[in-house]
């Protein structure tokens, strides 16, 4: 599982090798110096021998080769330094690694969009004939932009795949790529990258990542026929599906002008009469107001004031999942959890492809990563 990610947005199985003159010496040199650096620095730091490309060493190093080795060593020294924003640790999650797998863990809180420059690796273009399956192909990236397949060796190669990764590959400078966070990463959380949609078989059917394990997908999917489910209601304008008619009606307001109920005071329109009635109460100055005890806000309904106090000020989790014991701060958070873990509903559809998701943040990450 400790393999290199694919930067191809289509997740191709590295079929994009280009028929152009490529200097195998550069790829071989990268393999040799990376093996030397992991042996001298990373393996001593971890206490075990990590993956090696097993490339035969050169008889002699030129002055340029020695400078190349020094730069690669600097990458690993910076990665293992106490000031580094991550640590590389042993990973026992994947049995096929044979005890030599590793993972990258955040040592500090990282904001979304943070470029982790020390979590980097050197890129060298290779041709298919150079790669030997199971030996030196554990860290290969394919760039749709460059139309080339490249070895990617360095500390970043130890970031494992996750289908909902918290980092993307970021080209730092010519010949060097690092990772950039696509959402906040907390200290102690594993730093992951997305390898590609078909990296672990068609639709990642053999994926063993933490997300697939949690969602019972990929290699963890149940091969038995699923139980007969309640028929879902389909939107006529997009791929979204819903369990209840009321959800579908609410969703349709995004596609069709369904504002039939207008306020006689301000003219604002609503798609449901109950929404109009709730709005109209705000115009009645004689109605009892329910003020918040901690801020100047007031509400026309007691339950709205209580909800505001609990969620905004007290940070209470008052919304209970109907199928498990988890609680959430808002009904939306509870519903997104319920979609993902219990019903499998994906009402948030991408307008540029057929993908759909359980929550809007998952849709946002998909658009950012794929489109």
TrEMBL record:
Broad class of the protein's primary localization: nucleus
PROSITE patterns membership: SET, ZINC_FINGER_C2H2_1, ZINC_FINGER_C2H2_2
Domain C2H2-type: 261-288, 290-313, 319-347, 348-371
Residues annotated as signal peptide: none
GO MF: histone H4K20 methyltransferase activity; zinc ion binding
InterPro entries: Hist-Lys_N-MTase_N (IPR041938), SET_dom (IPR001214), SET_dom_sf (IPR046341), Suv4-20/Set9 (IPR039977), Znf_C2H2_sf (IPR036236), Znf_C2H2_type (IPR013087)
Keywords for this protein: Chromatin regulator, Chromosome, Metal-binding, Methyltransferase, Nucleus, Repeat, S-adenosyl-L-methionine, Transferase, Zinc, Zinc-finger
Keyword S-adenosyl-L-methionine: yes
A Pfam family matched in the record: zf-C2H2
Domain SET: 84-196
Subcellular compartments: Chromosome; Nucleus
Cellular component GO terms, alphabetical: chromosome; nucleus
Any one Gene Ontology BP term: methylation
Metal-binding recorded as keyword: yes
Protein name: Uncharacterized protein
Organism: Acyrthosiphon pisum (Pea aphid)
